[in-house]
Amino acid sequence: MLFNILFLNINIYFKYLFFMLNTTLFFILRFSTNIIYYLLLLFCCYCFDIFALFCFVSFLIIIIINTMITLFVHLFMFIIWYFLLLEHILI
């Protein structure tokens, strides 16, 4: 009985750690693509100089919104998994 409880808790810890690693890697990947988009935009504004300021500001706003949505989604998922982990520990 005790072994089953310990094994269940260890299993949940590993699932939680794997989930956090997955989400962190996903966030890093998403953020790095935002930076690549930003650099691409700077290059296009420098080369073509057509509505450069408008393009720059609008694309920067899109990148910021995209990053904030990603942050909130990961924070929400982290909170859910944290409470699930606490529930399994307390039971």
UniProtKB/TrEMBL annotation:
Keywords: Membrane, Transmembrane, Transmembrane helix. It comes from Piromyces finnis. The chain crosses the membrane at residues 12-29, 36-65, 71-90. This is TLC domain-containing protein.
